């Protein structure tokens, strides 16, 4: 044990080799094929894990197994994985009950036609916060953005840009988003505390985004000719989960309760047949979205476990300490530490093109930096989530941008000029770091 502590104190650059191998394989594959999702991330991570096992021959194989077992068995990793699955179940259940369609139509019915594009952003914010998925939000609203573009005469890029901005709002802020779950669990804070901290930082960005879209579209109007049918009861599961998480009810209780309420609403509104509830949960033809929501979280759950293994070995070999030693030379005080966490999250997201994976990878390092420089856990969690979402909303090879482009026939570079929110979110966060008053009693 004494030898291990000495290694960790000094730090070793070579210990970071597995992370380097992952980035080379993942980025190399994307550059060569032109598709950053051609190679599954889990394959690159497994290769990186194999490299980690081959390193440091002074430690036995059994010792290394013990190290990763402790890493994977960490309370935060286990809790995070279970929350991922529960969040997927809720998302699938509320979709099966018709909640997404009702929420979108309700929003479009309430908002005046003259603010249709602003409405796309606002509805996107609510849908993404409620669903916890930017991809699901884009899929739900992209067809509506196409229709609004055709009827108003505004470019498709402006309309889908509003959808993208709204999607990234909830991706960062939602309490059932996998990014939020990962950020909270890697930093060791409560979801409600992170939400409040995060919301104050991004609120100015959201308000300015609304103003920007209003001014560039204020001279247009249109009238929806299609019927906007909705059922207020189908929106209730979203509201229950949102309110429950805000007032501090245990996240498992909130998500499981939301799933049950979604099924009850589905049966009551005859969207889900009573005798098909359990068939639906098992992947039945009518409502296979429920199990699909759970299985949709398998990848990120497995990736989180494998990344925990890699990070455990990298830390054991002195890699985390090496990074911390570099930061100690560059960082001056709490503000510097916050900027360092922000830069770390942004850089890793640009390399991985997946903000959840970026948080899972950068989280342990950010936690060490936060502890070293007395950065509040809810603040480090917010910065991790914010700046990984900033990167994800702006990189042209991210899944969100590629999805929005493919659904509308645009290119990512057509949409980028209208991605106001991620840019403003970064500006707001940096201003928050620079000018926020710090209390002497804060830790």
Note down, in words, how this protein is organized.
This protein has 443 residues and is an all-alpha fold. The protein has a domain at 81-295. It contains 23 helices and no strands. It has helices at 2-10, 17-33, 41-54, 61-72, 75-96, 99-110, 116-131, 134-152, 156-173, 178-187, 191-217, 236-246, 251-268, 277-281, 289-295, 298-317, 319-330, 333-352, 355-372, 377-394, 399-408, 412-415, 420-435. It is globular, with a radius of gyration of 22 Å. The model is unreliable at 1-8 and 280-287 (pLDDT under 50).
Shape: globular
- Number of distinct helices: 23
Number of strands: 0
What is the percent of helical residues? over 70%
Strand content: under 5%
Layout: helices, strands, pairs:
Layout (H helix, E strand, L loop, with lengths): L1 H9 L6 H17 L7 H14 L6 H12 L2 H22 L2 H12 L5 H16 L2 H19 L3 H18 L4 H10 L3 H27 L18 H11 L4 H18 L8 H5 L7 H7 L2 H20 L1 H12 L2 H20 L2 H18 L4 H18 L4 H10 L3 H4 L4 H16 L8
Helix pairs in contact: 2-3, 3-16, 4-16, 5-10, 5-13, 5-15, 5-16, 6-7, 7-8, 7-9, 7-11, 8-9, 8-21, 9-11, 9-20, 10-19, 10-20, 11-20, 11-23, 12-13, 16-19, 17-19, 18-19, 18-20, 19-20, 20-23
TL;DR?
The protein is an all-alpha fold. It is 76% helix and 0% strand. It is built from 23 helices and no strands.
Task: Write out key terms for the chains shown.
mainly alpha; 23 helices; 0% strand; disordered N terminus
């Amino acid at each position: 044990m004494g030898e291990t502590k000495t290694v960790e104190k000094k730090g070793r650059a070579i210990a970071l080799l597995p992370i380097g191998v992952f980035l080379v394989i993942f980025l190399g594959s994307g550059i060569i094929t032109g598709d950053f999702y051609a190679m599954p991330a889990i394959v690159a991570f497994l290769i990186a894990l194999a490299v980690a096992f081959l390193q440091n021959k002074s430690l036995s194989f059994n010792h290394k197994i013990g190290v990763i077992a402790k890493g994977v068995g960490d309370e935060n990793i286990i809790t995070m994985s279970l929350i991922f699955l529960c969040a997927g179940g809720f998302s699938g259940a509320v979709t099966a009950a018709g909640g997404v369609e009702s929420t979108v139509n309700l929003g479009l019915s309430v908002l005046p036609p003259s603010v249709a594009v602003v409405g796309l952003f606002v509805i996107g914010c609510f849908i993404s916060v409620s669903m916890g998925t930017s991809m699901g939000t884009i899929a739900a609203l992209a067809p509506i953005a196409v229709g609004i573009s055709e009827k108003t005469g505004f470019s498709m890029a402006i309309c889908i840009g509003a959808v993208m901005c709204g999607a990234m709002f909830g991706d960062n802020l939602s309490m059932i988003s996998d990014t939020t779950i990962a950020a909270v669990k890697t930093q060791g804070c409560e979801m409600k505390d992170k939400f409040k901290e995060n919301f104050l930082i991004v609120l100015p960005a959201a308000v300015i985004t609304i103003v920007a879209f209003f001014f560039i579209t204020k001279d247009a109007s249109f009238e929806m000719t299609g019927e906007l049918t909705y059922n207020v009861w189908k929106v209730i599961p979203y509201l229950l989960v949102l309110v429950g998480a805000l007032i501090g009810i245990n996240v498992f209780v909130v998500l499981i309760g939301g799933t049950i309420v979604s099924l009850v609403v589905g049966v009551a509104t005859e969207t889900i047949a009573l005798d098909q509830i359990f068939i639906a949960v098992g992947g039945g033809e009518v409502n296979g979205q429920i199990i699909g929501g759970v299985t949709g979280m398998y990848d990120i759950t497995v990736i989180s476990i494998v990344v925990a293994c890699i990070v455990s070995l990298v830390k054991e070999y002195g890699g985390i300490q090496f990074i911390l030693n570099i930061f100690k030379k560059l960082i001056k005080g709490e503000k510097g530490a916050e900027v360092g966490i922000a830069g770390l999250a942004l850089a890793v997201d640009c390399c991985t093109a997946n903000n959840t994976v970026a948080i899972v990878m950068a989280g342990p390092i950010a936690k060490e930096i936060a502890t070293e420089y007395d950065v509040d856990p809810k603040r480090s969690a917010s910065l991790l989530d914010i700046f990984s979402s900033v990167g994800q909303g702006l990189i042209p090879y991210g899944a969100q941008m590629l999805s929005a482009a493919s659904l509308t026939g645009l290119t990512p570079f057509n949409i980028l000029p209208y991605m106001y929110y991620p840019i403003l979110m970064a500006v707001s966060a940096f201003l928050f770091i620079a000018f926020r008053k710090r209390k002497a009693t804060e830790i």
